[in-house]
């Protein structure tokens, strides 16, 4: 698939639409995690509107590419991408985190397009390893994409999975790290220890790529290159926590907190709208 | 008694090999303990469907969930202390909550692990696993039952926790297994012993000896701990009015606790729990340990005599 200027524009516009939903959903629910959702908007836009082989009308299609949101708290962005892509009606997004809604605070099996329940961090890459292993066993050519948070990869389970994936040469597995450099308790020392990140993944037998995670062309290209690797590939996407809403950018304050009042809500929507007009 | 002894782990390994032929989508995972859990037997026959992930119990459970989501029937094995303890959160998040088609078969449950000592003697796993919604918990009493249970969980969709013991066990059942049903091994009218796993043989031995002392003992093999056979518990309590539970597990959160809940809510009766009394075990030969902690037939007999005495007052 060639990436013409029209497609680039479309992917950028979808990212802003995801951002708008992240703000509406979390504000409407008076809870949720906007910071790490806003940072992953372009990644999800590219995956769901360019990269993955999926059929929203047939979410259980056996040949589908699989996506695991290992950083489950980015559920607002994930649900928005699924709804915009047509897995379920966009109207439903405002039921996010409400009682009896399908759209649980963290992704839960039973939502069309959700492959596995996530939320307790560090497990999604293992699930991805299992799906990729199954593809190898069954000689199927679907791919598995796993989106991880950078705070999340402080969990030991992630590195167990990283070892396991390279042991089995899972060239059908692509991990993406949303490297926004801020976690719940702000900028922890462990965040520094994670550097140099590409070297760590390389040492574990992976093929690393480092990109600007808000640049759709770079994301598309990195995914193309990742697929050429003969081993699992990881895309370290440098991003900005809270991207697109000025007061949410580069702060831990909005990791797990929606706009505090109507004024903040309106500012956020206005800034996202302005960005949309610039595209 | 003239019993034939057999390793339940070996029975597990043999049954996996048999099932491997029946289900071509059956996959077995292990975490560097396959020669002990006996999943290596499957690995030898079906190397392409056997994955030894190395010392990664957490990754094993997540990987099991991913394989299951992609259409596999997955058996994941390790020692009980690692399968239920080390990987608890992975079991909760990736297996129990999404109802993944994963069968956790944990060997080396209880203090009967022996010489390895408290670090390896898992006495909390039944509580941990029973506390998980969607998880079903089975503790077979002998190798005959192991074979039936493994075949049952393979064909039944969704998550199971099956707990096996390390020592060889006497073949005391006919191997017929009905999920969710306890089985009366011996009828009696004075007192009921409800036991699981390695304890069922001691319950039978205790009943035989108690008979000579004029105590008519009912013995129930309660191999399905969750969902537990509520009707049978109430029925037997109505009959004898005295229940002794026996398990190689902490008295908290195991069989005894489940039986206590059923009795308290439905038919309050005398109850004594034989098990580890909220303490860690220690190294020793497995049979010495069971004797030391009062988990053998002598310990059960003491409990029965005590319940006969207190209930007479």
Briefly say what this structure is.
The complex is a heterodimer of chains A (279) and B (313). With 279 residues, chain A is an alpha/beta fold.
If you had to describe this structure to a student in words, what would you say it looks like?
Chain A contains 10 helices and 5 strands. Chain A has 279 residues and is an alpha/beta fold. Chain A has one domain (5-278): 3-Layer(aba) Sandwich (Rossmann fold). The mean pLDDT of chain A is 96. By secondary structure, chain B is an alpha/beta fold. Chain B has 2 domains: 5-170, Rossmann fold; 183-312, Rossmann fold. Helix content of chain B is 42%, strand content 21%. In chain B, the strands form 3 sheets. In chain B, strands 3-2-4-5-7-6-12 form a 7-stranded mixed sheet, sandwiched between helices. Chain B has a 5-stranded mixed sheet with strand order 9-11-10-13-14, sandwiched between helices. A two-stranded antiparallel sheet of chain B has the order 1-8. The mean pLDDT of chain B is 97. The A-B interface holds A 62, 66, 68, 108-109, 115-120, 122-135, 137-138, 144, 156-157, 160-161, 163-164, 167-168 and B 27, 48-49, 51, 53-54, 56, 58-72, 89-90, 92-94, 97-100.
Which secondary structure elements does this structure contain, and how are they paired or packed?
The complex is a heterodimer of chains A (279) and B (313).
Chain A: H1 5-29, H2 34-38, H3 41-51, E1 66-69, H4 75-85, H5 124-137, E2 144-149, H6 156-167, E3 173-179, H7 189-193, H8 197-203, E4 207-212, H9 216-227, E5 233-238, H10 262-278
Parallel strand pairs in A: 1-2, 2-3, 3-5, 4-5
Helix pairs in contact in A: 1-3, 1-4, 1-10, 3-4, 3-9, 5-6
Chain B: E1 5-6, H1 8-22, E2 26-30, H2 34-37, H3 40-45, E3 50-52, H4 57-69, E4 73-79, H5 80-86, H6 88-96, E5 102-107, H7 125-130, E6 136-138, H8 143-155, E7 160-163, E8 169-170, E9 183-186, E10 191-195, H9 199-212, E11 217-221, E12 224-226, H10 230-240, E13 242-250, H11 255-266, E14 270-276, H12 286-292, H13 297-312
Parallel strand pairs in B: 2-3, 2-4, 4-5, 5-7, 6-7, 10-11, 10-13, 13-14
Antiparallel strand pairs in B: 1-8, 6-12, 9-11
């Amino acid at each position: 698939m060639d990436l013409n200027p029209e497609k680039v524009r479309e992917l950028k516009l979808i990212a802003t639409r995801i951002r708008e939903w992240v703000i509406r959903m979390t504000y409407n629910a008076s809870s949720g995690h906007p910071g790490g959702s806003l940072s992953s908007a372009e990644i999800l836009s590219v995956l769901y509107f360019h990269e993955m082989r999926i059929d929203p009308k047939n979410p259980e299609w056996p040949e589908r590419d699989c996506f695991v949101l290992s950083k489950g708290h980015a559920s607002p962005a994930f649900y928005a991408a699924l709804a915009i892509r047509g897995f379920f009606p966009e109207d439903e997004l405002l039921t996010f985190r409400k009682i009896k809604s399908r759209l649980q605070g963290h992704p839960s099996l039973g939502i069309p397009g959700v492959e596995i329940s996530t939320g307790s961090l560090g497990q999604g890459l293992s699930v991805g390893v299992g799906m990729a292993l199954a593809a190898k066993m069954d000689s199927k050519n679907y791919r598995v994409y796993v989106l991880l948070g950078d705070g999340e990869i402080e969990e030991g389970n992630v590195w167990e999975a990283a070892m396991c994936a390279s042991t089995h040469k899972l060239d059908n597995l692509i991990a993406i790290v949303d490297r926004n450099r801020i976690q719940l308790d702000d900028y922890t020392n462990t965040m520094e220890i994670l550097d140099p990140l590409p070297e760590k993944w390389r040492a574990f037998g992976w093929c690393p790529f480092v990109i600007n995670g808000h640049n759709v062309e770079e994301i598309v290209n990195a995914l193309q290159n990742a697929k050429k690797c003969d081993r699992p590939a990881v895309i370290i996407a440098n991003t900005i926590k809270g991207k697109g809403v000025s007061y949410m950018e580069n702060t831990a304050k909005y990791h797990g907190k929606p706009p505090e009042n109507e004024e903040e809500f309106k500012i956020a929507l206005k800034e996202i709208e302005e960005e949309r007009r610039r595209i | 008694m003239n019993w034939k002894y057999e390793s339940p782990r070996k029975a597990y390994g043999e049954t996996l090999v048999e099932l491997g032929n029946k289900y071509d989508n059956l996959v077995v995972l292990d975490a560097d303990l396959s020669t002990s859990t006996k999943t290596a037997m499957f690995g030898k026959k079906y190397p392409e469907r056997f994955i030894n992930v190395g010392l990664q119990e957490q990754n094993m459970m997540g990987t099991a969930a991913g394989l299951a989501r992609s259409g596999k029937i997955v058996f994941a094995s390790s020692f009980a202390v690692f399968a239920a303890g080390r990987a608890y959160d992975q079991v909760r998040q990736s297996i129990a909550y999404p109802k993944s088609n994963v069968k956790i078969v944990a060997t080396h449950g209880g203090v009967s692990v022996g010489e390895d000592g408290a670090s390896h003697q898992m006495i909390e796993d039944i509580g941990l696993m029973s506390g998980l919604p969607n998880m079903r918990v089975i503790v077979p009493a002998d190798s005959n039952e192991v074979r039936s249970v493994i075949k049952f969980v393979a064909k039944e969709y969704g998550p199971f926790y099956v707990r096996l013991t390390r020592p060889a066990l006497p073949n005391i059942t006919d191997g017929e297994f009905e999920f969710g049903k306890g089985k009366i091994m011996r009828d009696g009218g004075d007192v009921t012993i409800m036991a699981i796993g390695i304890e069922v043989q001691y319950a039978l031995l205790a009943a035989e000896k108690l008979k000579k002392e004029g105590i008519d003992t009912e013995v129930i093999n309660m191999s399905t701990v969750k969902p537990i056979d509520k009707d049978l518990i109430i029925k037997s309590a109505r009959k004898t009015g005295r229940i002794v539970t026996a398990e190689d597990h902490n008295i908290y959160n195991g069989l005894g606790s489940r039986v206590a809940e059923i009795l308290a809510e439905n038919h309050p009766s005398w109850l004594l729990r034989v098990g580890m009394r909220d303490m860690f075990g220690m190294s020793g030969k497995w049979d010495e340990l069971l004797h030391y902690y009062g988990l053998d037939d002598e310990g059960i007999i003491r409990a029965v005599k005590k319940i006969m005495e207190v209930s007479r007052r």
